[in-house]
Every structure is written in C-alpha cells, then in structure tokens.
Amino acid sequence: MLVLNDLVIQFGDKVALDIESLAITRGEKIAIIGRSGSGKSTLINHIYEMLRPSSALCSQRQGLVENLSVFHNVFMGALNRHRWYYNLLNLVYPLSQPLKEVGLIATELELDCPLTKPVSALSGGQRQRVALGRALYQHQELFIGDEPFSALDPVMGQRLLTHVLADHSTVVMVLHDMDMALAHFDRVIGLRDGRKVLDIDAKSLNVNTLEAFYQDDTALDFMVAASPATNRLESLPRAVKRY
Ligand SMILES: Nc1ncnc2c1ncn2[C@@H]1O[C@H](COP(=O)(O)OP(=O)(O)OP(=O)(O)O)[C@@H](O)[C@H]1O
Fold it and tell me: Localized where (predicted)?
C-alpha cells in the first residue's frame, strides 16, 4: 500500500522524522507509539498526505467548524462524494438520507446530543467523537488516527476502537494505551527522537516491554535487535522534506 524510504522531515532546523524504511501493507492494523515529540503526528500526517484519496484522518487538531452543528461537521467528511449544490442544500436544509446516515454514526459513537447542536457547545469527549464521526463518514479503506480516543474514558475508547477496526480494512493509529495496542493491532511501530526504533509483530510484545520502551533507554537494545530494518545505510542520498 505504501513504502517509505529515507524519509526526512524537518521543521526549520529541527529534524522531526528520519526514517530509513517503513512499509504499510493493505489489511494491516498498525499501532504507532512513542514519547511526546518523538515524531508520531509528523509520520501519520505524512502517511495521510501520501494516501489521501483512500484514507480518512482523525487528527489531534480535529479541525471542527465551531459554529456549525454536529450534523454539518460529520457531513463534511463526505463533501467530495457529492456535487456542490447537494452539499450546499445540506448546509442550509439537511436532507433525510444524510440525516439518517449521520444519525447512525452518532449512535455508533454513543453521541447522544442533538445533531443540531453547535460543536462549540460540546464537551471535549463529544468533540472528539464528532471528529471521529467525520472520519468514519468518509467510508475509506484506510483509517489514520492520532490518539482518537484520548479524551474518552478507556472503556468507551475500547468500544469505539472496535467500530473503527470493523469499518476499515487497514488502520494506522497513534495511541498510548498499551493494552489496546497489544490486544487489537497486528504490528507496533515505536518512534524515538524521530527514528523508527521498533517495528515488530504485536504478538512478540507484552505490556511490560512496551512500558519499558517509554521509560527505560536500556530496553531499546533488545527492541532494536528484535526489529527488522533498523540498520542505517548512511551513504544513501536522503530526500529531505522541509517546512
Ligand atoms: N509545525 C511545526 N513546527 C515546528 N516544529 C514542529 C512542528 N510540528 C512538529 N514539530 C516538532 O517536531 C517534533 C515531532 O513532533 P510531533 O508532533 O510529530 O511529535 P509527537 O510524537 O506526535 O508528539 P505528541 O505525542 O506530543 O503529540 C517535535 O519536536 C515538535 O516540536
């Protein structure tokens, strides 16, 4: 589905990402982990850019339109499926079919507020579910999520993850919940200081190892040894993407 080779992304002088190789295969469920600032968002935003026509992104920034309703914010996920006049009509007077479809997604996401409510009046958890709903309404093959359940309680997060996994054949998700990563994902990619230091079958890991990955630098030696494709070929020319 996607192969990244020698990817370097810089913000000014700051190298946010420096990855030798990373492949994503159709059908995989991939969890991305790492400390704050390790490059996770930079990586998944790049993946989204590369695979945009067939992927839906639920980003940390959400990008909701504050004074528009829950319905309109979710409906925005489908704007490019319809002609402009159909979209305009739904902006002014929502039609019954999209209302029904958005209503079903809201139910799936346990969003029990009225669809007419402006998102500016929602709680953090409700807003996050609206952003999630907008991504689900795209009905794409690939779901890319950047901590999409961070504002929800863990039990609800588990339930909603089940929907996301059922609705998408391929999932790439940043998360900090190690139990979730191990129970529901095939593969775990770990970043540290912009480098991929872990890329391993989830079955080979346990919660203790992953917690050590966050806390203890010595645990890294084991992981690097267990991970494929972490040896760098410094002599290769590198394509640098600068912002
Ligand atoms: N737009 C930007 N301008 C400047 N620096 C940036 C920008 N975006 C990210 N960075 C820097 O790049 C590095 C990686 O950031 P990134 O957001 O990818 O990390 P992250 O692992 O997703 O962090 P977190 O878990 O806190 O969300 C950080 O040092 C960050 O400060």
Answer: Cell inner membrane
**What are the residue boundaries of the structural domains of the chain, listed by start?**
2-242
For ligand 1, is residue 19 a contact (CB within 6 Å)? no
> What pTM, to 2 d.p., does this model score?
0.86
Fold of 2-242: Rossmann fold (3.40.50)
ipTM of the complex: 0.95
Residues 153-188: tens digit of each pLDDT? 989 999 999 999 999 999 999 998 888 999 999 999
Rounded to 5 degrees, φ, ψ at 150 are -65, -25
Cα pseudo-dihedral 20, 26, 31, 32, rounded to 10: 30
pLDDT at 229 over 70: no
Burial class (CB in 10 A: 0-12, 13-18, 19+), 33: buried
Q: Kindly give the distance from the C-alpha atom of residue 43 to the centroid of ligand 1, in angstroms, as a whole number.
A: 10
3-state SS, residue 20: strand
